[in-house]
Amino acid sequence: MRQSNTYIIVFSLILTAVLGGLLSGVSQVLGPTQKKALDLDTKKQILGAIPAEKAKLGEMSAEEVIARYAEVIQSEVADFEGNLVTTNEKGEPLLAENVNIEKNYKKPAEQRVFPVFKYKNGNEMAYILPVYGAGLWDAIWGFVALNEDLETIKGVTFSHKGETPGLGARITENEVQDRYQGKYVVQNNELVSVTMVKGEGTPESKLGPTKVDGLAGATLTANGINAMLSNYLEYYQAYFNKHSKNADAMSMNNQ
């Protein structure tokens, strides 16, 4: 027996409403759990930019990660001109941990806000900066820790959305990230950032203080990493000039 068009339309609308309600309910139930997992992952990435902290993360529970983060990380947010920002556009408190770097990246640089995570452990201090850019196939991002002198990299963590396994995706490997430790982002009071060279296997003696070995077969991913680092170090120029103890060491004039 054929059903009328009205019956089919009404049935479809009811089914859509029911399914929509179910999906909304599931989202509300899982939302807090997903947010907690995302927050935990972000805290791990921030701590992971510090080599000594990264070495411990694999043995730590979620509760221990959160406790360690609270113990050694302080955060604040700056605008493009380096002024500290404490509220969002709605007048609500603005926390560095709540800034969505991906959404922020889509705005013109002058309209973005820039989280700063300050690592303090005894006499050891570092600035940890989020970075975001484009790889070969999709987004790449991470955190870069600068030593207190603002001239050298303490450590990095990199992640990606769709780089090629075994090639560009290797930016997540410790061996690749460790290459950045101790490299200079400033020389002669000017920003030089750090460049990943083309190809792989270049001896350290030929790389010097501002270059790291590349990734075989992943030149475009390397180019994305280079642009990401250079851009974000420049974005934080005004903040460091206004708020760091070693502002004179870092003149962010891109070469």
Give the overall pLDDT as a whole number.
87
Query: How many strands in all?
Result: 9
Alpha plus pi helix count: 8
Largest sheet: 5 strands, antiparallel
Structural class: alpha+beta
Runs in which pLDDT lies below 50 for 5 or more consecutive residues are: none
Shape: globular
Order of helices and strands: HHHEHEEEEHEEEHEHH
Give the radius of gyration: 22 Å
- Strand neighbour order, sheet with most strands: 1-2-3-4-5
- The share of residues in helices is 25-40%
Give the terminus-to-terminus CA distance.
Answer: 77 Å
Strand residues, percent: 15-25%
Question: Could you explain the architecture of this structure?
Answer:
By secondary structure, this protein is α+β, with helices and mostly antiparallel strands. The chain has a domain at 73-249. Helices cover 39% and strands 20% of the residues. The protein has eight helices and nine strands. The protein has helices at 5-48, 51-57, 62-72, 101-105, 174-177, 204-207, 219-235, 237-243, and strands at 73-79, 113-121, 124-134, 139-147, 153-160, 186-187, 190-191, 195-196, 211-212. The strands form three sheets. It has a five-stranded antiparallel sheet with strand order 1-2-3-4-5. Strands 6-7 form a two-stranded antiparallel ribbon. A hairpin with a 4-residue loop joins strand 3 (124-134) and strand 4. The longest helix has 44 residues, at 5-48. It is globular and about 80 Å long. 29% of the residues are buried. The model has no long low-confidence stretch (mean pLDDT 87).
Offer a quick outline of the entry.
With 255 residues, the chain is an alpha+beta fold. Helices cover 39% and strands 20% of the residues.
